[in-house]
Amino acid sequence: MNSFDAFKDPALCRSLLGRLTEEATTPMRFMEVCGTHTVAIFQSGLRSLLPGTITHLTGPGCPVCVTHESEVAAFLELAARDDVIVATFGDLMRVPGPKGANLKTASAEGARVEVVYSPFDALALAKANPDRTVVFLGIGFETTAPTVAATIRLAREQSLDNFLVMSFHKLVPPALRALLADPEARVDAFILPGHVSAIIGVDPYAFLATEYGVPSVITGFEPLDILQALIHIVRMRRDNAPAVINQYSRVVPEHGNQKALAVMAEVFTPVDALWRGLGVLPQSGLAIAEPYAAFDAFKVLGITLKDHPPLPGCRCGEVLKGKMPPNECPLFAKACTPATPVGPCMVSTEGGCAAYFKYRLEA
Amino acid sequence: MSGRLLLDHGSGGKASQRLVAEMFMRHFDNEILRVMDDAAYLDISGPLAVSTDTFTVDPIFFPGGDIGALSVHGTVNDVSMLGATPLFLTCGFVLEEGLDLGDLERVVVSMGRAAREAGVRIVAGDTKVVPRGAADKIFINTTGIGTVRVSPAPSGRRAAPGDAILLTGSMGDHGLAILSTRQGLSFESPVVSDCASLNFLVGKVLDAVPDVHVLRDPTRGGLATTLNEIAGQSGVGCFIEESRIPVDPAVAGGCAVLGLDPLYLANEGKFICIVPEADAEAALAVMRADALGRGACRIGEVRADYPGKVVMTTPLGGQRLLGMLEGEQLPRIC
């Protein structure tokens, strides 16, 4: 057994599950913030095994899902330009815009769209296509922002003048604050994202326990990690001792990744940002800072976000806030399916609606 | 041959004739093809299986194979999945102007070799050359004809409650080999396509277990999509256990890094075999005695509940749907 498999060990998992079932005597609603956790909980079959007292909510932690309609419209407008090559991670290809179009349909209509595995690939694309402007769609949380920042810095060092980034980056802690500030949100505990925390560390989550009294655990993505996190949560609630525990210390340094934080702070600046279903959240996004304005697609190409209201009937907001399970949305599995997604939560590989549709035995 | 392919090679004139003689006839040579009439004269009787497929794989050379060998294996396997012995292949080439003739020859040599090894003869063919940009290097269509060996023939419609679901080996090797080559990614352990003709192994299984209910090779869409197709065709539930599905550690690792699921990745040298429970061990023994089925195992069973669905029990003991893939798998953000 390698170290990777050790965290999936079925016998150990069953033993932890037994302990959790024994100790989880009080009803508890927990939300996992990260889309990778959403998928891990469904894919491992853990969701079907959780004790009846525990309700699992999917949260706003999939960067594709929280991409606002106006942002989707902006990058589709960008893709329609003849002089531009759009470079993107694969997740965004099928995210529908306000009129149902997406990057795949744009590509079929002649747009040049390239799926890349890293922003550095987008930089290479710019070098290989000096007569076109390559615009990388910078979507992601604190996990991806440092690499994009490093790419922008490299583009400046190499004096590249045909590489731009359209930054839609978002920050996780402000979203958690917005959730807890909502009087209707009923989240008793958080499973905090492992990848994001590897960059920002533990401190930025302290307010969850100190201001809101919500027990939270930063955790990894294997079944054992998640089970251990849930046991921590159940015990913190039982002892009325809310805290932020770092269960994922094998990856997450207490004070984060200083190098990554430094490059992020150098290239980006926090701004108010639009979140799908959540609206404008103060200081929750990252725009390209003034010294790097020459790489900002919004500024260089003169693109602004235009107002696009959500589609009638779409309840992404409630789903992302954990107020409604995806299958209670009136569009779920009817108008909105992976083949005909109304919102990105149904199309993203890490989306809550997609997970419900894909993995749940009962629709 | 050396140099580059010209539009002249598709003109039907002397350049075309030279290409056909020096390239295709030379490497596919057999007495039926040599006649060179407008159609091949075949003397076969009995129930026949026919399948056609077009191969557009990019890159055309990949670890473990190339588009030529693949175009033989793919169609040989499709014909075999009807419980048939593949006998003849036809092939159509769409070639892009400017293609390196050395590359074309490598592909054709590989195709000829794959056909000889599979015991099938290429009896008819066609070549078109299209202007640069109108095709991507080389597209190959192959059609296969074979004689059906058993009655009733295996079919996706014959899975019945109580049947055992068997698999001949590890999942996802071909799909990840292609994706990683396309993206220039390398892994600690090399990932090699499983591309192979399965007709001889299928023949051995049918000799031992004539009443095979379903044979299906999980190509595009992988195991998950193929099992869903079978569940839908037969109106049954396919219940499988995740821990029993073999996945090579290098493939599992590569998929974890890229955010892909090996159960949705293509295979080109494996098949799913659904047999009555009583025949399961006999079928497995035959598979395991063959190099192409060494990793054969039982992955689950067919049941009457959850008709049309594939239900997977995870190593933790939880159950979840294993749905069909919507579109292609794409790498995720984080």
TrEMBL record, chain A:
GO BP: protein maturation
Record Pfam families: HypD
GO molecular function, one term: iron ion binding
Top-level taxon: Bacteria
Keywords, sorted A to Z: Iron, Metal-binding
Keyword presence, Metal-binding: yes
Family classification: Belongs to the HypD family.
Protein name, entry field: Hydrogenase formation protein HypD
Keyword Metal-binding in annotation: yes
From TrEMBL, chain B:
Signal peptide from the UniProt entry: none
A single GO BP: protein maturation
Domain PurM-like C-terminal: 161-309
Superkingdom, taxonomy of origin: Bacteria
InterPro entries: HypE (IPR011854), PurM-like_C_dom (IPR010918), PurM-like_C_sf (IPR036676), PurM-like_N (IPR016188), PurM-like_N_sf (IPR036921)
Residue span(s) of domain PurM-like N-terminal: 37-148
PANTHER family in the record: CARBAMOYL DEHYDRATASE HYPE, HYDROGENASE ISOENZYMES FORMATION PROTEIN HYPE
NCBIfam families (UniProt xref): hypE
Family: Belongs to the HypE family.
Protein name: Hydrogenase expression/formation protein HypE
